[in-house]
Specification:
Blueprint: E1 7-10, E2 13-16, H1 27-31, E3 35-36, E4 39-44, E5 47-50, H2 53-66, H3 75-88, E6 94-102, E7 114-121, E8 132-136, H4 157-169, E9 174-178, E10 184-187, E11 190-196, E12 199-203, H5 212-223, E13 228-231, H6 235-239, E14 243-248, E15 252-259, E16 262-263, H7 272-284
Parallel strand pairs: 8-9, 8-15, 12-13
Antiparallel strand pairs: 1-2, 1-7, 3-6, 4-5, 4-6, 6-7, 9-10, 10-11, 11-12, 11-14, 14-15, 15-16
Helix pairs in contact: 2-3
The chain binds 4'-deoxy-4'-aminopyridoxal-5'-phosphate (PMP).
4'-deoxy-4'-aminopyridoxal-5'-phosphate is lined by residues 38, 160, 186, 189-191, 209, 211-214, 248-249.
């Protein structure tokens, strides 16, 4: 992720990643009380572009506000600093990671103050390019009454790490997590869509991270006149689907091969997911939307 040359943005300054320090007595390190974002920059025909930069920094701000972490930054300035991080590191296709972490305080109280880090690294498709074999996780998503589930909080990712590790140990590529009522929720770092009878379905918000890619896919469905229903769905609905995919900033759009070892019947290249994947790639690369029939 970094080497001697890597430069990061830390509290208004550009410093070498290997020289930057943080203190050991903060609530983020000890309790997971911090928030972060995951953003992608693409080398488009019009130069390097940070995709949905405003949406990501708005979510960073909202995540902070939801969990009482002060956010006193200017979003346009953070976007500018993001472009500088990419520029000084000469990154063109990269993943950007802003993190807000707390100043020294060992109490279970509001933070004394915060720091902001923006780092970046070159990262290929997070879940690879091959269709995925997925399984239901024995871990469910955190109950929305136990935390602010719609905030992108550091500590929430223990749940994601446990689910991913379990799925991989069982020989699957990725986990699908249910909510505490047993309805389909999302992947450990992505949102879920499935296709049935020429229509698309996705779990409604409330128990999931409302993904920015998910919102982009919803918008693309409108543009491409794909019928989409947001609702509460059961694992059986996924088992009986014609096709399915996961989507997220890091994963982009990636199709599923099988669910609990049962293959989806539709050839991926003929699915709505494939059509959306092509449209998404064109969008992030700022290419004209192609007709993809
Ligand atoms: N759900 C979870 C739990 C995630 O971590 C992510 C990745 N941020 C997503 C969904 C997808 O969100 P986005 O499209 O904003 O990256």
């Amino acid at each position: 992720y970094f080497n001697e040359q890597t430069t990061i943005y830390l509290n208004g300054e550009f410093v070498k990643a290997t020289k930057a320090t943080t203190d050991l007595y903060g609530q983020t390190l000890h309790y997971g009380y911090g928030v972060f974002e995951g953003i992608r920059a693409y080398n488009t025909e019009n130069g390097v572009r940070v995709f949905k930069a405003t949406e990501h920094y708005e979510r960073l701000k909202n995540s902070c506000q939801m969990i009482n972490i002060p956010f006193d930054y200017d979003i346009d300035d953070l976007i500018e600093q993001t472009y500088k991080v990419l520029e000084v590191n000469n990154f063109k296709d990269a993943y950007v990671r802003p993190l807000i972490f707390c100043s020294p305080n060992m109490g279970l109280t509001k933070p004394n103050g915060v720091s902001i880090l923006i780092c970046a690294w070159e990262w290929g498709a997070y879940l690879g390019d091959n269709l995925l074999n997925v399984t239901i996780s024995s871990f469910c998503r955190p109950h929305p009454k136990s935390t602010k589930i719609e905030a992108k909080v550091c500590g929430h990712y223990i749940n994601s790490i446990l689910a991913t590790t379990e799925a991989k140990e069982k020989g699957f590529d990725e986990a699908i997590l249910l909510d505490t009522d047993g309805f389909l929720a999302e992947g450990p770092g992505s949102n879920l869509f499935f296709e049935k009878g020429g229509k698309l379905f996705t779990p409604k918000t409330g128990n999931i991270l409302p993904g920015i890619t998910r919102a982009t896919v919803i918008k693309l469905c409108q543009d491409l006149e794909i019928e989409l229903t947001e609702g509460a769905f059961l694992p059986e609905d996924l088992a009986n689907a014609d096709a399915a995919f996961l989507c997220g900033t890091a994963a982009e759009i990636i199709g599923l091969q099988s669910f609990e070892k049962k293959s989806f019947p539709k050839n991926w290249n003929e699915t709505l997911g494939k059509k959306l994947q092509t449209a998404y790639k064109n969008l992030v690369l700022e290419k004209e939307l192609q007709e993809t029939n």
